[in-house]
Write a structure and sequence with these properties.
By secondary structure, the chain is mainly α. It has 16 helices and no strands. Helices cover 69% and strands 0% of the residues.
Amino acid sequence: MNRFFFFSFFFLVFIFFEYVFAQEAPSGTSELLQTDRNNTFLNGGNGLFIPERRLEFGKHLLRSGHAMKAEVEFLSLSNSPLFNEKTKLLIDLSKIEQNSPLQEILFPDSPLIRYAIEKKEFEKKLLTIHPATPASEAQTWEATGSEAQTWEAAGSYRESNISGDKLSLNVIKLRILEEIKNGNLSEESRGQMYLFGENEATFLKDNLEKRVSPVEKSPLLAGVLSAVLPGAGRLYTGNYGDAFSSLLLTGIFGYLAYENFSDGYIRSGVIFSAITAFFYGGNVYGSVVSAKIFNQTERENREKELLKFYQNEKPLDEPLDLLEGEE
């Protein structure tokens, strides 16, 4: 009850001063104040829902990863003078972040939108792990069939000469990153590596080298080595602890089998021989698996290195930043 009377008292005081101020204000002031209050109420308390602020808020949402909410903000401007071509491009960028189908894109022939789509696809590929592609089989960007017709207007921008605008430079850098990811860098791209800067270019060349000439272990050779000398295959793949264990266990049980047969304990000899065969077979099989794991780890490491480089260095500009740079 005390709290209720307390708030009631302050409410009445507030009304009283509002009334006094309105009476003492010059003619027309009270009407202006009321108009301002009405606008403030309609615009969300502090003008938050005026078109300009909704546009900026939508951009903020898009940068923050809330593409669906950003699209809602941009679409709310449909009856506003701000609903122009750039706003529609912002809607397209929101749809791309949501992985919407191509049919929903408003400007599929825009170089900026095509760049945004390919950048999104490249980022998905960065999360996958696959072996290096031989140069003769390396994939290159080439639209075919119906896709060629869809991208006919946009496709030429990838083959254009280097120009001063940021979009063209980012398109070239994206092409280089895609070629490195595929393990095949063209001579033209090698000559354009300077676009990344000295340190970044050095890292990318090293990463490419790991894809073109990867350090790999032969599973067949690892198995043969372990068949000749238990543990040798593990030693070949760098698993020194497992190599020592394989040699020790196989040697101990092999020796026990030999001793029991020599002493006439046939039954014990058979048991120890079976145990020896078990460890010997496991040693050979384990060496083959060890070589495969070694190769898989090498592939994962170079993919993780490229992903970490991309996330930390941010070599490509965001499409939203490129769009705002045009303003």
